[in-house]
Amino acid sequence: MHPSMQQRVDGLAAMRARTTLPPANLHVILGLTAPAQSVRYQVVAKGKAYHIIECATGKTRVFCFNYKVAVNTAQALEAAADRKAGRQ
User: pTM for the whole thing?
Assistant: First the structure.
């Protein structure tokens, strides 16, 4: 194979490998510092409802039919978890 074509194939393979890495490993490879605190709850649209999913378990904690209510609820859950963990 031509050397320039081989370089392209190798580069694409390296990028493809990075897409499957967890974010923590990607930070290490890129030489970046990981975020101090990750998000515990994520709002996801599922049909006509918005599910608030706990990122650690992948389970739905709450669902709402209004986006603003869902975001406010997720923020309240984050704040409650911070208070429980003593991270005020």
Answer: 0.56
